[in-house]
Design brief:
- With 56 residues, this protein is an alpha+beta fold.
- The chain has one helix and four strands, in the order βββαβ.
- Strands 1-3 form a two-stranded antiparallel ribbon. It has a two-stranded parallel ribbon with strand order 2-4.
- Bound molecules: zinc ion.
Length: 56
């Protein structure tokens, strides 16, 4: 199964991708939350969150 991460569709709000349980996800507006695979997030130019370290 491909691991899914959470991003904000508004990059000005957050340009990192997170594990869905990460506390920073609470700062993302509900309407902007999107679940994608790590590959998709990287493709869109998002960087891994230093705190929850998605994907290890
Ligand atoms: Zn995070």
């Amino acid at each position: 199964m491909t691991p899914e991460v959470l991003i904000s569709t508004d990059r000005r709000e957050d340009d990192r991708y997170h594990q869905p349980k990460c506390r920073w996800c609470d700062h993302i507006h509900r309407a902007n939350k999107q679940l994608v695979t790590i590959a998709e997030a990287e493709e869109k130019g998002y960087k891994a969150c230093d705190e929850c370290r998605p994907g290890g």
